[in-house]
Batch of 2 targets.
Target 1
Amino acid sequence: MGVDYRAVVGVGKEFNDKWEAQSFLEQHEILTKDDLEEIEEDGLEEWSYKDNKIEVVCLDAYSGDYYFVGYELSCSDPESFRKSFEDATEQWDKLFPNLAPDVVKTVKVY
């Protein structure tokens, strides 16, 4: 059994744990009452997968710590990277009009 890693490049914010990530989404009124109930039942990552408003990714599967909230970028070639960056920035600005995203470059541990 080994440890797998994957590069993550995205537009968004990083948090130390899922509670900080969820609190961030609550403070910015992204989560509805129904969303909070779904998160209680299924978890934050599963909610983001189903809801598709924004990605929530746990970056360390072993500890359950370190979360990315935002949009991962396609890095397959320069043209798709630029397009995915523009699309991600546009989506972020719709949800968080007064908050500039970070360009997140990190690693996801499986």
Target 2
Amino acid sequence: MSQLDDIDLALIGSAALVAAGTFAMIANYRFEQTLADRNDPFTNIVDLYRKYRDQTHAHQGRVDPLLRGHCAAVDVFTISGIVYVILRFD
């Protein structure tokens, strides 16, 4: 493994952990508020995000930083994966 592999593995791994952790907190909040059903096998993820954004915006007057952090982590994960593939296999 080269240094590029090590750096990108660390970046993708940390972004995936942050994204998964923040998603778990968002989903848990929705379930605790009984705004989503835990037993629904076909939960619409986009709807879950949209309702979370709307509810926190209504209560706080702004979009929750947890959702912004989740979106940023997903962006870092995606972009670093694309850049890695381009640099590694070019």
